[in-house]
Amino acid sequence: MVVSGPAGVGKGTIVKLACQKAQGNIHLSVSATTRNPRPIDKEGVTYHFITKKEFRSMIEQNEVLEWAEYVGNYYGTPRKPVEDALKKGQDVILEIEVQGAMQIKKNFPDAVLTFVAPPSREELERRLRDRGTETEEQIVSRLQTAEEELSRINEYDYIVVNDTIEKASEDLLTILRAEKLKQKFE
Ligand code: 5GP
């Protein structure tokens, strides 16, 4: 399952809670990125922080499932951990932005795409500012990108509104359950 949504919408928090509730049955992919770590980031846990040169080499070696440039930095999903988790029968969540989500949709037709939407635009801006981790310039840039992302909401299979973290995390788990009950016609 792909989970996208504008910066500041709280998708990281709801995905984390959903994973805790699933007690090890969900593999949360750890992306590689060239952006600088934030104080709360942990190498290998929130991201693999790598250089642009290392990123380019991963692309050349076909080691990423998808990748995108987002507000001046590169982000990509390392291929092997995802393939290993799927082989073990685990559900896999990729928390990625829209361009990457569309690459996954094209290459993996079975993937389920979920968009986490804010209760309102005002609430999104408030959350992004409250996080206090970005400069004004970065906030403006991320709000602009958020508008572009919101305009692509129709390309997703499911929409989860993040009004409360508890409900939104339950919604993610409900989607995973529903997808497993769906009739698949060959
Ligand atoms: P942030 O810098 O706030 O951690 O992430 C910025 C955006 O990049 C978020 O929308 C996040 O979901 C997305 N992102 C994180 N990892 C990946 C990835 O591996 N691939 C893609 N395409 N987007 C990612």
Topology:
Elements: E1 2-4, H1 11-21, E2 26-28, E3 32-33, E4 48-49, H2 52-60, E5 64-70, E6 73-78, H3 79-87, E7 91-95, H4 98-107, E8 113-117, H5 121-131, H6 136-150, E9 158-161, H7 165-181
Parallel strand pairs: 1-7, 1-8, 2-7, 3-4, 8-9
Antiparallel strand pairs: 3-6, 5-6
Bound molecules: guanosine-5'-monophosphate.
Guanosine-5'-monophosphate is lined by residues 7, 31, 35, 66-68, 70, 75-77, 95-97, 99-100.
Can you characterise this structure?
- This protein is of the alpha/beta class.
- The chain has a single domain (2-178), classed as 3-Layer(aba) Sandwich (Rossmann fold).
- It is built from 7 helices and 9 strands.
- It has a 5-stranded parallel sheet with strand order 2-7-1-8-9, sandwiched between helices. A 4-stranded mixed sheet has the order 4-3-6-5.
- The chain is globular and about 50 Å long.
- The two termini are 20 Å apart.
- The mean pLDDT is 94.
- Bound molecules: guanosine-5'-monophosphate.
- Guanosine-5'-monophosphate binds next to strand 5, strand 6 and helix 4.
